[in-house]
What we know:
This protein has helices at 20-23, 29-43, 102-118, 134-144, 160-167, 182-186, 195-206; strands at residues 2-6, 12-17, 121-124, 150-154, 172-176, 190-194. By secondary structure, it is α/β, with parallel strands linked by helices.
Amino acid sequence: MKVKVQKLDGKAAGDVELSDDVFGVTPRADILHRVVTWQLENRRGTARPTRERSDVARTGAKFGNQKGGGRARHGDRGAPIFIGGGKAHGARKRDFEQSLNKKVRALGLKMALSSKAKDGLVVVDSLELKDAKTQVLKGHLDKSGWNGKVLVIGGESVDDGFARAARNLKGINVLPAMGANVYDILNHDTLVLTKDAVEKLEARFNG
């Protein structure tokens, strides 16, 4: 698959040949759903439990007499009615982490890249911004026609000036080539890859 390469300002910069094994895979909704679900569930933190009667450090010895004290009978300071006692019917620990086969994960990433290759993929030669100003970068994006939410996946060709200016623009996110993931790719309108990021992604699956 041959794709046109452009510069940051939108000017043409030749062509690049994309591997069909990475960017030419037919997407499947079930695979993409499994990978996105796995990714989002693993982002969730563990639900912290509350301490119940058996978890609090209180004496278990009976205090006071059973009769004659004029008060209710109690046998444990860890009861929920006492200050410092355990929580009654408290929240239980829940861990949301899931497991997924590595081959399915890799296939899902290929399908996400392939879906953007058909519609919404932009390949640039490099992302170097000499004048690291937010308005300068916004002008380049408008010329290039990058609309909506933009995900930039780059390698060493993404300089610090571009990354700093991109932080101030709403709707544009920058990730390294090894940080490419299915959810972020599908959740953006435009996917921008640098030439070295394309090489890294292809080497990631072929290596």
